[in-house]
Amino acid sequence: MDGHCLCGAVRITAIPSSQAASACHCAACRRWTGAAMWAVEAAAAEVRVTGEVRTYRSSPLAERAFCPACGTHLWIRDDGKDYDLMPGLFDAASEFPLSHEVYADRAFACVRLAGSHPRASRAEYENSHPFVEGDAR
Ligand SMILES: [Zn+2]
Ligand SMILES: [Zn+2]
Predict the structure, then answer these.
(1) What's 53's domain CATH number?
(2) Residue 16 in contact with residue 2, Cβ under 8 Å?
(3) Residue 137 falls within a domain, yes or no?
(4) In a domain, 78, yes or no
(5) E-state strands within 11-131
(6) Most C-beta atoms within 10 A of its C-beta, which of 1, 12, 19, 33?
(7) How far away, in angstroms, is 53 Cα from ligand 1 center?
(8) What's phi and psi for 91, nearest 5 deg?
(9) 134 in a domain, yes or no?
(10) Which ligand is closest to the CA of 59, given by its number?
(11) How far does residue 7's CA lie from ligand 1's centre (Å)?
(12) Residue 36, in any domain of the structure
């Protein structure tokens, strides 16, 4: 799928790992996105990026990338791992269903998501994944 930021300076081509998007309600994602973060996963080898990208190291484990010209959020990526790309960059992602939510018990009221998809609470997620104390405050 082909995508781009709001101003078009950054272009991304990616083959997603699955045709679905996940959601994260951790405090860092809430703050970064405005309320919740949606992500389409793609292996690093399946992502091509052109244009200048700025990154912000949001934790010792991960960086978040954005376009320095228009500010569009592009991805979050744990070091050396797959990309979690912002679905809004890609018109082809517009019909991707929600695969699962993490930090579901931390969701703002305005983005509590209906449906029977899998949900992990903060405790459930942090029991099974690396995380940074304070990142999810
Ligand atoms: Zn841009
Ligand atoms: Zn998060």
Answers:
(1) 2.170.150.70
(2) no
(3) no
(4) yes
(5) 11-14, 21-24, 37-42, 47-50, 54-59, 62-66, 73-78, 83-85, 98-102, 119-120
(6) 12
(7) 9
(8) -60, -35
(9) no
(10) 2
(11) 4
(12) yes
Q: Give me ligand 2 centre to Cα 68, in Å.
A: 22
pLDDT at 137: 47
What's the farthest any 2 CA atoms get from each other in the chain? 40
**Residue 38: strand pairing partners:** 23
Q: What is the mean pLDDT of the chain?
A: 94
CB burial readout 31-50, b (16+ within 10 A) else e: ebbeebbbbbbbeeeebeee
Q: What is the mean pLDDT of residues 36-53?
A: 98
Q: Are 87 and 21 in contact (CB under 8 A)?
A: yes
For residue 26, what are its two tokens? 């951790």
The number of distinct structural domains making up the chain is 1
User: Domain range spanning residue 72?
Assistant: 2-128
State in Å: Cα 82 to ligand 1 middle: 22
The 3-state DSSP class for residue 75 equals strand
Helices (H), the chain: 27-33, 122-128
